[in-house]
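Batch manifest, entry 17 of 40.
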Amino acid sequence: MTDKKQLQIAIGKRIKSIREEKNISQQDIAGLCNIEKSNFSRLEAGNTNPTIYTLSKIAEHLGVSLKDLVDMEN
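Output type: structure tokens
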């Protein structure tokens, strides 16, 4: 089982990868999700533990499922 920090980093990397793939800036996605850009930056770096609600908002605005963000099997 992955420890908390490793999981946070993996999810943050997944979010960043999808965001960059869709050519969306941190500022834009943070605004859409009503998150401060600095907090979004920390989330992508794995330095914060986002709530399931926050992850669902990010997934919605990235146009992916919540499972796509948190599935560590892929």
